[in-house]
Amino acid sequence: MIPTAIASLATIPCPSPAAAGGVEVEVLNTGWVDSDWRMVANDGQKGPARLPLLVGLIHHPDGDVLVDSGLGLTTREESFPRFPIRTGNTTIPAGLALAEQLQTVPSTVLMTHLHYDHIGGLLDLPPNTEVWTTNEEFTTTMTSNLGFPERRIRSAVQWKVLDLRPGNAQEQLGVAAKDVKGDGTIWYLSTPGHTPGSASILVRSTTDTWLFIGDIAWVDKHLAESKRPAIVSLIVDGRPRLQKRALAWARQLRKMCPSLKIVAGHEPKWTRIEP
Fold first, then answer.
1. Within a domain: residue 5?
2. How far apart are CA 25 and CA 5, in angstroms?
3. pTM of the full predicted structure?
4. Are 163 and 151 in contact (CB under 8 A)?
5. Is residue 177 part of a domain?
6. Sheet holding 170-172, edge to edge
7. What gap in Å lies between CA 222 and CA 243, rounded to an integer?
8. Most-buried pick from 46, 103, 113, 151 (CB within 10 A)?
């Protein structure tokens, strides 16, 4: 769980790069969502917003690991579930689908949450691909995770469902966590709020430290002064009280650890591909 006293993070040291070599991180853009900025942040700005569908690619000596999967080849060609009230239109230009960008088959996919724009690419991966999620996330897809294509995704890959309740996990950055590779370089963190079982991924690469927070924040402005508009948050945030706490946690880490590269789920600065 997210710490109830965010100030307690002050006693937690900032993560440092891995002592061992061989871990590198890339951020891929797998498509675009076009919306109105007024649907993204409550900062008074207006105008169109084009946000990327980001995926983390972690190169580890034991095999590549993905953070989320974006949409994909299958979802480019077929109808796919959308939110009951649409906040934007998604497009997957040629060459941007995850399967079109990967050079090797990933060993593992670590899901931040199971909303449609983060999971569509799973349909293009081999059926024996191991995909991590939390128990809270996997058991609430029919009630709290809008847009999850239940039948197809449940059988498309090999799910690894984790119980990250206190007592069943270790701890990183003040929250329950699981060491993905057993060497301290990649951690799967329990950060519920945006959805009932949302997760974040901490990576200690050879040169930097990274924190993929999924949709705790869509853009960097959410990590500063703005938030999702109230009506949008009512639709997309499954656990509002926990989401407020998770956002405060991410904001505090950003202030405490300026060298930590925090990747919000749809922040444009992480893509080098022009809209």
1. no
2. 31
3. 0.92
4. no
5. yes
6. 170-172, 175-179, 186-190, 199-204, 209-212, 261-263
7. 12
8. 113
Report the alpha-carbon angle 187-53-130, nearest 5. 45
Euclidean distance between CA atoms 182 and 165, whole angstroms = 19
47, 24, 185, 9: which is closest to 103 by C-alpha? 24
* Contacts of 93 by beta carbon, 8 Å cutoff, 6+ apart: 31, 32
Tokens of 70: 């974006």
Strand partners, 161: 133
- List the CATH number of the domain containing 80: 3.60.15.10
Give a yes or no: residue 38 inside a domain. Answer: yes
Q: What is the tally of structural domains in the chain?
A: 1
pLDDT tens digit at each of 275 positions of the chain: 454 444 467 778 899 998 777 899 999 999 999 999 999 999 999 999 999 999 999 999 999 999 999 988 887 766 555 444 444 588 899 999 999 999 999 999 999 999 888 998 999 999 999 999 999 999 887 666 555 566 778 888 999 999 998 778 899 999 999 999 999 999 999 999 999 999 999 999 999 999 999 999 999 999 998 999 999 999 889 999 999 999 999 999 999 999 999 999 999 999 864 43
Note whether 108 and 122 are within 8 A (CB).
no
Nearest to 69 by CA among 87, 50, 54, 48: 54
Is residue 41, in this structure, part of any structural domain at all?
yes
